[in-house]
Amino acid sequence: MTDTIFTHHLLFFSSSDIATRQHSVASFTSGFASVYRQRRPNSLTISIGCDDRSSIHSVKSTPPNSDSSSSSPLSIDHLDEIKKRKLILQNFAYTHEDDRGSLRIRLMSSGEVDQTCVLIADSIPESSTLSRWNFKRNVTELEFLVKQYLDNQRTVFPHSATLVGFYKQKNNNPGEEEEKVACTVEISFNALGMHSFPSTPLPPRDHPYICNMVVKRELRRKGIGWHLLMACEKLTSLIFSSDNNPHPQAPTVYLHCRVVNLGALSMYKKAGYTVVKTDNILVWLSFHRRKTLMFKKLEQ
């Protein structure tokens, strides 16, 4: 499914030189440091109706306690906003079930980073120009680079979040049904969550941005990509409706789609996304695939 919905590439995956990629990681991981750490209530319950077979809801959790600290003076309202955003992310869940199986999407936990790295790394060779150099031989290094990237993005939580989806396929032997890691996607909600090297055409840094959307190869063409996109939109709407804004506005979400990825382009247009701008053909000179920037204004 990566050929269908993989929407973003990392800068250091676009170089043919190993040392260059490692330098990119080192530069990248020196970015934003997290300065928000505070105690959180035990649970939060949110319920929003979707279609008949899909639902978005919370799951109760007990986050670990941490000492309150901040490297800069922050208003009470801002701290409350950060706290609410963390709770929404930690308790978010999107589920869908049909005749073929069931899908459950939620925030990636620390114990799922390695599985997510493998899923993303497995998608890179077929979705980047590195395939021409048979980058599969360097899959271990690639997984390391992806892990560095994910670890860096976790430092800017809750301004950015990585979701993972678990799929359980139905068969004639119920005892053999097994839930598998099926998909992943990243959402940055503002400039603090946006990584240092976004794709071109450049998206607005102060708007939500969806990237690194991947579905496991053997689970593609089951509608998982569509529901992963819907989960991103529902979560983004939840986040922005919770912000301390007396006049909240519906968020506008941005994403990239490769020009050659006609299946993904069709899916995004069906979901209501509109083309903003497409890369100039000269982008090929930098060994990057041409991409189209798209946006959608979500409902309040």
Automatic annotation (TrEMBL):
<dbReference type="InterPro" id="IPR016181">
    <property type="entry name" value="Acyl_CoA_acyltransferase"/>
</dbReference>
<dbReference type="Pfam" id="PF00583">
    <property type="entry name" value="Acetyltransf_1"/>
</dbReference>
<feature type="domain" description="N-acetyltransferase">
    <location>
        <begin position="137"/>
        <end position="299"/>
    </location>
</feature>
<feature type="region of interest" description="Disordered">
    <location>
        <begin position="55"/>
        <end position="75"/>
    </location>
</feature>
<dbReference type="InterPro" id="IPR000182">
    <property type="entry name" value="GNAT_dom"/>
</dbReference>
<feature type="compositionally biased region" description="Low complexity">
    <location>
        <begin position="58"/>
        <end position="75"/>
    </location>
</feature>
<protein>
    <recommendedName>
        <fullName>N-acetyltransferase domain-containing protein</fullName>
    </recommendedName>
</protein>
<dbReference type="GO" id="GO:0009507">
    <property type="term" value="C:chloroplast"/>
</dbReference>
<dbReference type="GO" id="GO:0008080">
    <property type="term" value="F:N-acetyltransferase activity"/>
</dbReference>
